[in-house]
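Data availability (excerpt). The following record was deposited with the supplementary files.
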Amino acid sequence: MDRKIKPEPEGEIEFLLPEIEKFRLKNGLKVLFVKKNSLPILKLNLVADSGSKFDPAGKKGLSNLFARTIDEGAGVYNSVELSDEFDLLGTNFSINCFSDDIHFSLQTLSENIERSLELFSMVLTNPHFSEKAFNKEKRKTLTTIQQLKDSSEDIADLAFDYLVFGNLNPYAFPTIGYMEDLEKITINDLKKFYQSNFCPLTSSLIVVGNIEKNELEEKLNSHLALWTNKSSVENINFSEGRSDFSINLIHKKDAVQSEIRIGHVTEKRTNENFFSRHLLNTILGGQFTSRINLNLREDKGYTYGAVSRFNYLKELGNFYVSTSVGSENTGNAVKEIISELELIKKGITLKELEFAKDSITHRFPGNFETYSHIAANLISLVLHSLPNNYFDNYLRQINNTTKEDIDKSALEFIKSEELKILVVGNKNIIKKQLDGLNKGEIIELNNNGQKIN
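Predicted structure:
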C-alpha cells in the first residue's frame, strides 16, 4: 500500500436504522422498541412530559426537586436499600429533569430485566416522598444554586435563556429553580405534582435491546399496570419573547475572562427547514472548521473555541453563539461575531456546502453505534413528533439540500435586528468596550438575567 496516495471514496453511505416497533401498554403508555442483540443488554428511557415548563409561578424548581426525590425510597425499600438493590444487579438507574421532560434512564443485563423492572415500577408507582429525603434534596439543590453563582459560564447560560425567552415564557426559567422559590416548595407540592403531572398517557418509554417484542410487552404490562395517574395539567402559553435588539452586561468582579452569548428566539424544529438550518449552522459555527471558530480562534486568537447552535425545545427554540474570551478582547470578539452573522446572510460557497455535507454524513452512522445512542435519537423522535422513518431519510434530506435552501434559511433565521447580546465579566474592563460598539445603551442585569433598576 502506497500511503502517499489518498484512498478514493467507495460511494455514498447507506444507513438504515433497525425497525422501530410501536405499541401501547394497558395503562396507555406509548412504547418505542428497537431490537438490538449484539450485547445481552436492555436500555430503557422513560420520557415523562413533566419538565420545568410546568413549574408554577413562585415555585420554579418544583419539577427538578420532584425528579431528585422520587427515587429516594420506594416500595419496601428506603433510599439506600433501593440504590443497593440496583447495584447488586449491575443496573444503572438515573433521573434527570429538563425543560420539557423528566427522563428516567435504566440499563441492565437482559438476564436481570425482571428484577430491574420490579424496582423501576416501585419508583413509578409507590415513591415514599418522605419529609427527610425531601429536605435533604432541597438542601443539596440550594447548595448547587449557590455554587452556580461562582461560575461565569453557568450565569451566562441561565441568564441568556431568561433574556431571550422573556419572563412570560416557561422556557425562560432555570430547571434548577431559584433559591427564594425552593424555600416555598413543600413535600405536599411534590405529591400534588406526582398526581397531576406525572402519568403514563403523557409519557413515552423507549426500549433498545436484546429481547423479543412479545416478551417485552408482557413484562412491561405486568410491572407497570399500577401506574395509572391521570393528568390534570392546564395548557401553557409559550410566548415568543421580546424581539428588540439589546446589549446586556452582568458584572462579575475580578473576572479575567468574559462569557459571551449572542442570539435570539427561533421557531421549533420542523422537517421543512431543519436540514437547511443544520447545514447553515455547521458552516457558521457548528464544527471546528466553522467560520466563527476559524475567525475567533485561528485568525484572531481571542478564544480556545466558539460555537453556534440552533437549540430546539418542544414548543420553541433559540439560536445562539457562545464563547469565552479574555476581558481585553470582549468588544472585538462581539464585533467579529456580529460581522460573521451578517456575512453568512450574503451566501455560502459550494465548497463550504460540500464539506459540511461530508462532515455530517460521515459522522451520522456513529450516532447509532451504542444502545444509548439509539435510545437518545428515539427520544428526539418523541420530543419533536418526528415520523418513524425520519432517520432512514436523514442522509437523503441532507444531500438534497441546496445552496439556495441554505442561503434562504440564513436570511430567514438569523435575525440581526432581534439579537440579544449578553456578556458576563468585569464591568470595569468591558463596559467601555461595549460602549465603543455604538449599538445603543448597555443594560445591566443581575445573575438571573433581570434588569437592575
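Summary of structural features: The longest helix spans residues 131-148.
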